[in-house]
Amino acid sequence: WQEKRGLRELRVLENLKNTIFETDEHVLPKCEQAMHDNLNETLKRLQAANNMIHRLREREREERKLQADKLTAREEKCVAHWEKFMEEQQNKRAEVDEEHRKAMERLKEQYSEMEKELAKYASF
Q1: pLDDT in tens, 27-47
Q2: Residue 103 and residue 111: Cα distance in Å, rounded?
Q3: 9: how many CB neighbours lie within 10 A of its CB?
Q4: Torsional sign, CA 51, 57, 63, 68
Q5: d(CA 49, CA 36)
């Protein structure tokens, strides 16, 4: 009975030794290779994603600059338009003021003439 038990334990130990050898020689290298391959593939994908993000950010930066340039150009155009408008208003104001001054002069002359005419009749 003791001898059978010893043989069974020897077989269990032999099986364990074989399992450990199989794991060490075949399973672990396969796992390491699979892990290495997967990590390399993951690294390549991450690098590709990083490159895509970099290109997208660059395009976005260029688009923002283009929009800012357009906005600046529109603002400059509006300022130039406003300055021209204000200059035209100033010129129109000057014209109106001059017309008013001339009209006032004509009215003064007209009233002056009317006063002279009235003065003629008042002396009677």
Answers
A1: 999 999 999 999 999 999 999
A2: 12
A3: 10
A4: negative
A5: 20
Q: Which two tokens stand for residue 46?
A: 């991450």
The verdict on pTM exceeding 0.85 is: no
Taking 90 as the threshold, does the pLDDT of residue 119 lie above it?
Answer: no
Say how far residue 70 (Cα) sits from the centre of its chain. Answer: 13
Q: Which residue has the tokens 């009209």?
A: 103
Place of tokens 């672990």: 28
- Residue 27 phi/psi, 5-degree rounding, is -70, -50
Cα–Cα distance, 88 to 40 (Å, whole number): 71
- Exposure b/e, 18-44, CB count within 10 A at least 16 = b: eeeeeeeeeeeeeeeeeeeeeeeeeee
Rounded CA gap, 29 and 25, in Å?
Answer: 7
Could you tell me the CA-to-CA distances from 120 to 106, 108, 109 in Å, in that order? 21, 18, 17
- Please enumerate in sequence order all residues whose Cβ is within 8 A of that of 10, keeping only pairs 6 or more positions apart, or say none: none
